[in-house]
Specification:
By secondary structure, the chain is an all-alpha fold. The chain contains four helices and no strands.
Length: 175
């Protein structure tokens, strides 16, 4: 179990770094595009010849949207590992430790099932997008690879919940 848990946590850590790179990429693309748009305005006003060929980045919206989908999807598993999601435990805290452990087991099981179903449905949807040839408006980037990445991320979250379920079972049995 420790080897499996270590591999999943290593994968999640790698995904978290990719999400961070996607956010940095979004920042660089957006900042560069805004700067180049400003330069176009300066050229229109002052006619500085060195700015004559400067143009905004075509498809900035497409690039930022795709990078945003990667950032959100790949950060999901890390947030789950760190228990960073919003949790309301106002009523649950009133119960005994054993009942709290049972609630956590049930919640993690349902969450794992939800993300497992999400992963499978994303694969089906990505296959449909690939067959239909759906692409972004400006750059004509295909959507299906990004939906496959979302499916992969949902599967990673499912693995995180599987580990949590096993650990929850140990707690329920031991209490």
């Amino acid at each position: 179990m420790n080897l499996f848990e270590g591999c999943v946590k290593g994968l999640v850590r790698y995904m978290y770094y990719v999400a961070g790179l996607a956010i940095v990429g979004m920042m660089v693309i957006t900042t560069t595009d805004v700067f180049l748009r400003f330069c176009v305005t300066l050229y229109a006003t002052f006619h500085w010849s060195f700015m004559e060929s400067w143009r905004p980045i075509p498809g900035t919206y497409d690039l930022v949207a795709m990078a945003g989908s990667v950032a959100a999807a790949f950060a999901m598993a890390h947030t789950t590992v760190e228990s960073g999601h919003v949790a309301v435990s106002l009523v649950i805290r009133l119960f005994t430790q054993k009942i709290q452990a049972v609630f956590k087991l049930v919640t993690d099981t349902l969450s794992g099932l939800l993300f497992g179903i999400l992963s499978v449905r994303c694969v089906v949807y990505a296959r449909d997008l690939k067959e239909s040839g759906e692409v972004s408006m400006t750059l004509q980037l295909p959507f299906h690879p990004f939906v496959y990445l979302l499916a992969f991320s949902a599967f990673a979250v499912t693995l995180v919940f599987l580990i949590a379920i096993i650990n929850d079972m140990k707690k329920v049995i031991s209490k």
